[in-house]
Design brief:
173 residues; alpha+beta; 5-stranded antiparallel beta sheet; 44% helix
């Protein structure tokens, strides 16, 4: 009777150990591949934000807004790129914002988002993203999306943080 109780426990424990080991091996093999793919996507997004740039160098500063995840300066002085994170209605958003040397936005684009399909996800549409092109820190003419106010307001706030970061980085030079 005691054997009938212990044997299934041992078998299940062995199965759990084997599956856990297989998952650990799979994770160790795929983790670098996933990290490399993410780095390549990030590099491509940075290059696409300011296509005239010859190269980029990372900028570090402790005084940047907390939402600014990464900041880059172009090597030929045609602008700056900021990767900014924020929270929208559906979760975290990550966007990229290129700003010219005079403080005008060159391009903004959404890198990641989990907003409601058909509403908040409209922040990824060209019509919304293109309204930022040429805008300066006054943000004059930028409008939130009707029906997706939380998502678009979060996006606009993130762009403001990029413009603030630009002022900090530019002032430090």
């Amino acid at each position: 009777m005691k054997n009938d109780f212990i044997k299934p426990i041992l078998v299940l424990t062995l199965i759990c150990l084997l599956v856990s080991g297989a998952l650990a091996v799979t994770n160790s093999v795929t983790e670098p591949v996933i990290a490399d793919a993410a780095a390549q996507r990030s590099e491509e997004a940075i290059r696409n934000t300011i296509p005239e740039a010859e190269g980029f160098e990372k900028v570090t500063s402790d005084s940047l807004p907390e939402s600014v995840k990464e900041a880059y300066r172009t090597t030929n002085n045609v602008g700056y790129v900021f990767i900014v994170g924020t929270s929208g209605y559906g979760g975290d958003m990550l966007l990229i914002c290129g700003i010219g040397p005079e403080g005008d936005i060159i391009r903004c684009a959404t890198l990641e988002q989990s907003e409601t399909k058909g509403l908040g996800s409209r922040i990824t549409e060209a019509q919304f993203e293109q309204q930022f092109t040429g805008v300066d820190s006054s943000m004059e003419g930028v409008q939130a999306i009707s029906g997706a106010t939380i998502s678009s307001t979060a996006y606009i706030s993130a762009v403001r943080d990029a413009l603030e970061a630009f002022g900090i980085v530019r002032g430090a030079e």
